[in-house]
# Entry
Amino acid sequence: MAEMSYVYPDRFLEEMKINSALRDRRIFISEEVDRESMFKACYLLDRIVELDKKEGTKNSIELILDSYGGAIYHGLALISKIETLRENGYKIVTTVNSVAMSMGFMLLLVGSHRRALRHSRIMCHQPSSSTWGTLQDMEDSVEEARILWAKLKELITKYTDITDEQLEDIKTRRQDWFMWSEEAKKLNVIDEII
# Structure
C-alpha cells in the first residue's frame, strides 16, 4: 500500500506566489526580509526578465509588500536589483497591503510608482543590531551599523522628501516613525493611496 503524504498549505502558497509572479508579474513579499525571501524575489524578477527577453517586452512588475522588515544586507540586494531594472526601463510598482516596516519600508521606496492601501501602516527607523564578543568585535559591529545607517539615509533622502535632519531626530530620540498612508503621501514615501 502506497503511503499518502500530506501537502502542507505553505506549499500551495509558494506555488501560488510563483504562478502569480510569472503570469501576473506580481511578486509577494509577505515574510521577513532574509536571505531566502530576497533570493526568491530576485530569482522571480530574473525569470520575468528572461521571459520578457524572449517576447521582446518590458511591461511593469509589481511587488506587493506585507513585511515587518528584516536583514539590511539581504534587503539591499533586492534594492540593487530593483534599481538596475528601473535603469533598464522597467516600471516597478511597489504596493503596501498592510505593513511596510523597517527593511519593508526601504523596499517600498525604490519602486518607480509606490502605492499603499488607505489604512496601511508604514514605519521607518534606524538599524538595530546586537553585539557580543571582544570589545573590538563590539566596536566593529557599531561601526558597521553606522555605515549601514548612512546607506539607508542616502536611499531615504534620495527617494522621499524626508530630510537628513528628520532621520537624525528619530535616531536621537530612539523612536520608530510610524505613519499612515496619508502622512506617507505627504512625505513622498508613496505616490498614491489606493
The mean pLDDT is 89. The longest helix spans residues 135-159. The radius of gyration is 18 Å.
